[in-house]
Amino acid sequence: MTTPLTKPSLDDPRIAIPAASEWYEPAPTAQTERQAEFLNLRDGEMFVNMGPQHPSTHGVLRIIVKVNGEQVVDLDPVLGYLHRGVEKLCENADYHQAICYTDPLEYVASLFCEAAPTAAFEKLMDVEAPRRAQYIRVLTMELNRIASHTLFQGWMALDLGGITPILWSFIERDEIVDMLAALTGQKLLYNYYRIGGVNGDLNHEFMSRLGNWMSRAAAQIDSNLGLMNENEIFVRRTRGLGRLDAATALRMGVTGPNLRATGVPFDLRRDHPYLVYPELEFNVPTRDEGDSLARYMVRIDEIRESIRIIDQVLHEMPDGPVMAKLPRLIRPRPGRAFGAVEGPRGAYGVYAISDGTDQPFRMRIHDPSFVHLQLVGPLTRGNLIADTMAVMASLDPVMGGVDK
Amino acid sequence: MSGAQMVWSRMTPGGRALAVLLPLLSVGGAALTALLVVAAPFIGATIGANLPIVRFLAASVITFLITVPVAFLLIYMEMKIIALMNLRIGPDRIGPAGAVMSVVHGLKVLMKEDFTPPSVDVPVFTLAPVVVYLASFMTIMVIPFAPDLTSVGLEFGLLYFFAIGGLGVVGLMMAGWSSFNKYSLLGGIRAAAQAISYEIPLTLSVVGIIILTGTLSLPKIVEAQSGSLLDWFVFRQPLAAIIFFIAITAEANRTPFDNTEADQEIVAGFATEYSGMRFGFFFFAEYVNVFIVSALFAAVFLGGSNAPISLPFSPEIVVDLSGLGLLLPIAAGVAPVLGTLAIGLPIYAISARIKAWQAFLAGFLIFGALSTAAIGFWAWAMLPPVADLIWFLLKTFTLIFIFVWMRATLPRARIDQLMGFAWKWLLPASLLNLFVTAAAVLLTA
Fold it and tell me: N or C: which end of chain B has fewer CB within 10 A?
């Protein structure tokens, strides 16, 4: 008998393969782990491959979900679609260029990606930015945090099926982005922080836009929230979902709002202070539930705290230079330094090793999104497919930072 | 080369088509006219003898045709209203305020490639959109737009509605199963589960009304609400109205119950593998469904074509034009010109900056609007079906607006919450409503 051109696939349910026929091929031995999983599917289970192009994965993430009907049995994020080798690129760039390379990692809050290497390099160089520059950094970072959190709020609603909050929250984000563009010249990747200061003092357009926005920010953000916080469907879909306890969170290395939602009041701004944060008054909002709703609410509270911080910064900002006196070519002494900032997604850190040349010998970037993404599996196991999106959205990973 | 050949070679393709078609059409038209004249008595006798069949055919064709503008209108409404609620501008390029945008969408869908993926079950895959569209078009036929303005005045119209409305889910299941796509499968199964769950409260909630009116015929249910405003079943059966509204939201797969095509979870659900006009049929059927369920709610609960308020005066505008004789067509021909001049000349005289064509265009438009309004008012006052139809469509489109509003506002409910809500709350509530109504009818009888 001639062999058929195409062998019927074993996972095609519509082709019945008679067991005794010569067509039948014994189950192939698994070559990879994924193939083994596929061959060992139990009755009623199937794999659903979501991404890298899927309407709801944040960026280019691929999730392989093993489902039993609607129920998620297992979930496996596949990373690397956005990998650019930023750490290696930084090793071949001088210290100023390295800051540019880290900029697009967390592209929704890129000032924090600049702040961490800047802090590390300043420790290597043993310089400190002038006080006015430090205040400017705090001001711009808190603005960027608000921009990131308002966007999170919109994405969260969009992943749950609501289409209006994302467009409303973009109004606030656009305003902040425009004012930062007036200050830095860029809308998304600001490239504003320098080793030993910032690139340029506050200008008139930034200040007038900021003043305009601050006069209505709190009320505007509160009114946008009404569409979600008072929505029965939204609250029912997020309350008690993806519950994370404090011990697990600490064991997994979770930081930021996701950790504070479990009741651990850990915030780098207060516990390992940097810049002028010790002089500012702010609360560290926490929640005890650790579910999706708590993660959402913590971020909303943080927006309010950030507005408070901006208010104090505007009142207390001193005059003076915004750049320390430094040589043109940065050539730190050999050594190691770790700089970390509290980003909108968690502790964002850079560990830099200098060998005395003008290029970092090694730069290790710690991104909170990468840590949080490993929670998606444990948190959604046993829930429904729709809950995967609610948990993913509440953890708020940004794939640029995950894949680096 | 002869003259005819030279002319032919210089003509554009469109010109050639016209040159062939025009003589054919004129000859054919003349032949058809002659045939009609000769066979007129016979045709008249045939129509007279088979009047129900002819009426049914005409009603079916009209019903089928009105689904298209209805869907276009709804799609435009949804695009524009959601855009305004999102603080966007929405469609604004094509037509006044972008009103023709949805027609262009329809043409685009028509011109796209009709792609059949290689591993689908071809007959089922092809038939699924047809079944879905057919189900929604067949349910329109029992909608009582006005007294005596129903395509098919079935005695069991309500029952027919639920039976045929449930048929659409078969189409969704067919699409989900035949697409050979896991998202489609999940979407199809979700559709089936949702429809089965919500059919029950949907049907049970109107049983109370059936007890009160003693009929399943939709025109008669509308007639039963013809008294004052308080005779509407939304006031006599408020619980049933709430249950019915929630159930039709789920039946029409609208937010917050649009789990069958939850794009954040299962991409496009059952329609994932469809493209071109096959997708267009699903899309159209969805919007026609929204219109149908709104119309049904308006008919069953909001008094259908009954006016909520009766005017304190009854305008009697009797226009007797028969005395004019031959002057009537002349007047009809001259009146627009005279009206345009009468309105356009003063506009032209107001300012030197207004050009003549602008003034006369404005005059023509204003005259058109005024005469349309006058004829409309006359029709509204003197022809009862027109007023009834206007009231019915007003109620229907108010409900459609509420559906669009909900879509702009609410997130999506999860599938288990959806099912739990149907079985744990809606079903007991509709049973309670049924028992209370039955007890009340028994006690008062």
Answer: C
